[in-house]
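Q: My labmate handed me this sequence with no annotations at all. I'd like to see what the chain might look like in three dimensions before we decide whether it's worth expressing. Could you predict it?
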Amino acid sequence: MQAGLAQTSGDAEASDAKRIAFEPLGGNGPGALLLHGFGSDRMSWLVNQTALSSVTNLYALDLPGHGLSGMDVGDGGLETLTRRIAALLDRNGLRKLHLIGHSLGGGAALMLAASRPDLVASLALIAPAGLGVAVDRTFLSAFPSLSAPEETEALLRRLVVRPRLIGKQLVELVLAQLARPGARAALARVAEGLVRSAEALEAAAQRVAAADVPRLVIWGQDDAINPLSSMKVTAFGGETLVVPEAGHLPHVENPRLANAKMTDFLMRHSGEQGESRK
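A: Here is what I predict for the chain of 278 residues:
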């Protein structure tokens, strides 16, 4: 399906560089929004979409600097990315969405829940930035400069426990995305911004923990990119699922288990709040 392109604000002068690729995926139930991780795009949810759309009306987007979205990421900080997501949702009249975020997208979901609770019905966070020990800076700095298939495959294999999940097609896709004009510079800025946003993420997590928003955290037991911090996750509260024999992509490495947990969580909390429009 071709993505619909929506501007991040109502400013008539907003350029294509600031546009966010936004795609309604359909489904049954209240609205839910997929927020992918660093260096990825909305296609990373392919093994989860069918299950999630069985219980939600699903939307997906490409974060600024990723996929088909514009390459203007501002200062690259999570606060900036989150404001643009909020503006996109405002522009489309969406409220009380169930946010499903992975890694960088999980950090953005945390920020949204803290700063714009009117937009958020619940949080399902997968290895989110802000609740782990720390996102690996070596991975973040190396990713934007990848150029050779061999080095790309080696870096991507750090994401998973089973190397066979990183195939030639994925390597080619990553390199094609990086070849887009402005992509490398945009991702480098987002990587720097993610590191810089650590304190803001911690504050957002504390604010959400003090609120009554339903929340679920899913983590791969062997995550080498953003290892689980039991102390932070316990303080955050809510429900937790640790996926055995999985790394930074537990929703891809064990989609059956992750999908079952997420759909159960969403069904139990869909009756309390759901998507609404202005």
